[in-house]
Amino acid sequence: MPRAARGRALSDLKNHTFFMKASSLKNLTASLSATRKNFQPLWVYFVRNRWALVAGVLSLLVVDFLLLMIPLIIKNAINLLVVQAPGTGALLVKQGITIGIIALFIALFRYVWRHLLLGHSRKVEQGLRNRLYSHVQTLSPSFFQNTKTGDLMARAINDINAVRMACGMGLVALVDGLVLGTSAIGFMISIDWRLALISLIPAPVVVVFTRMLANQMSARFERVQKTFSDLTEQAREGFAGIRVIKAHEREEWAYHRMEARGERYVGESMHLARTLALFFPLMSLITNAGLAVVILLGGRYAILGTITPGGFVAFISYLNLLTWPVMAMGWVISLIQRGSASMRRINGVFDAVPEIQDPGKENGRAPESHLEKSSPGKTSGAIRFSELSFQYPSRTEFVLKDVNFKIRPGETIAIAGRVGSGKTTLLQTIPRLLNVPGETVFVDGRDILKLPLATLRKQIGFVSQDVFIFSDTVFNNVAFGKGDVTPEDVIHALDVAGIGEEVDALDNGLDTLLGERGITLSGGQRQRLTIARAVVGDFPILILDDALSMVDTRTEEGILNRILDLRRTRTNVIVSHRVSTIRRADRIFVLDHGSLKEEGTHESLIHLGGIYAALYEEQLLGEEFEEGEVNSS
Ligand code: ADP
Q: Whole domain around residue 190: which residue ranges?
């Protein structure tokens, strides 16, 4: 190669190395700043627990200091034994007692630091979990449509655990790694620096190995966790769907599904066990290799008199003491990395902004001045839709188109239309469960976007198609956190909802447990219980979205009669697939492909002979057909 070219190549190489160094330094700085940013939300817990943290770290330092003292005492004791001067026995007793006292203090301070530092990590865990839960509760229904429940559960359990480990054991390992590690090395150097240098040769290997294995273990652990949650989910589904499985005689199929999940879980657990099984033997192999070198060389120094026999033993003690801090340094990096990745995922949830917010609120509390003053007592229950058009973000076409109409206070209205015509969507705009544009929906003459969400929703009882019963008593399911509800109120509401007698017949009446931990209700019973919940609320506006689809026509009629009797001065908005229910409304609004097409009483709409009349005809035919079937069977 010509000289010039060689020179250029050399300078290229130098530049390359320089840039590599610069870029890896840049990477390191970037990753450190990302880690700091990820952990930022935890700062508040560290400040809040600062005194416990200071006391905990001080106790940890005391333990480290005491641990470092023990080899010095051993050194003195052995040197005394070697010399065998008069009075050695008494001196040895003194040394023994000192070690005993030190051990006692180590135990005491170890208890204190564990209590304070691990307690701090539990407080971080609890604070983070509460914050996550309350934030998730503020998010809009669309968030839950786009996020899997399992994902949220994983964040609430596994990720928060990883953060707790980083804040607790991560901190301990960092302090021990730095303080105990450097001090032990310092003492070793003070005994014999050459021996210290040689014995430290395996240390970087231990750090690197610990990091590698810790990373591998955490990846494997995550896989074990994942297969475990699959297994749990499979078992839950198997038990919940046991009736369907039995009815179709699919026990074998269900068993094989479970067996396959179980096998995957055991497989992943065995992987983890193999890594764990490798970890400790490998560590002790490396540290014992260091020990062998020290005994060989240090023994020679002792024979030659370069170090005292006591110094030699103390040196070995320090080397033993060093095993944990060296491993801790490898572990701490992995703990912080895992914690940082978990915090990034948790921050992802914190960063999700509720699509539907109180007016004037941007990522925080709404300034009071932006909110209209709440006056729930004065609510009349008037509702107005003005040029309301609505589109779901996931769809291209409009689901509601220029809907215009008014509901007067104290009126009972029904919304009719074919499946998919937009009835549920229209109902959901009233309590702002959907993100509607401003100046399109008004309650009591006020734009709902200008009302505080709590004020708006407190006025509306919404019974949707999918009922939800909590694992709690009948009473708590009906009272639903409302403080001033008496058992009499609940019994009355249950009677109105037509389920009073059935609850009466239960062994524990209102105190009967429902759901997972208690009795299972039928679909119709669940619907009626949810109606009772809305009746107890005594809301100025009641919305029933096909809320009685699972009870027979006669029962539905009875329930509606009682509800409408009770709520004669209140506003009621009803959607039902039964014309027999709809016809009872003061006025009926008919939707078709999101547009309001007809409006009037049952009679006037039948007379009109449009969509409503056609729906009515179809239903009559259906009923006749069903009756015919019943009669002929
Ligand atoms: P109805 O209550 O009259 O049966 P809906 O209001 O439930 O009608 O639905 C109207 C249209 O909006 C349907 O085409 C339905 O598929 C669609 N839709 C309903 N909910 C959503 C949603 N969350 N995301 C996207 N499209 C939806």
A: 3-200+284-350
